Amino acid sequence: MSVQEVETEVKITPTDPLILSPTITNKKQPRGIHQFSGVFYALFSSFLFTFSTFTIRQLGVDLLDALLIRFSIQLLLTLSFALHKKYTLLSGTGLQVFLQIICALTGAGGFVLFSLALR
């Protein structure tokens, strides 16, 4: 038996995932803003919603006008993020895409009708 064969036989890998040492890779780990980008987008979305509510209360702007501006800004930011990350906007079978479109249209239509009812 050579020394090399003995070394390969002695290697024991732990089965508990908590004691595994992290592997070193050449892949760049996300840092800072890239790691927490989802949190930043959620906070910015909340800021836009709060700002539109503040605008309605303080300036006396119409509810539908303020929220349409907010939704336009949020739509542009969401689309730019999705295109930058190369996400597919609609995926699945033809029936699933059709149902996604119907769901989006009924949600948007319900919001517009609700806003018009508040006028």
From TrEMBL:
<protein>
    <recommendedName>
        <fullName>EamA domain-containing protein</fullName>
    </recommendedName>
</protein>
<feature type="transmembrane region" description="Helical">
    <location>
        <begin position="95"/>
        <end position="118"/>
    </location>
</feature>
<keyword id="KW-0472">Membrane</keyword>
<keyword id="KW-0812">Transmembrane</keyword>
<keyword id="KW-1133">Transmembrane helix</keyword>
<feature type="transmembrane region" description="Helical">
    <location>
        <begin position="38"/>
        <end position="56"/>
    </location>
</feature>
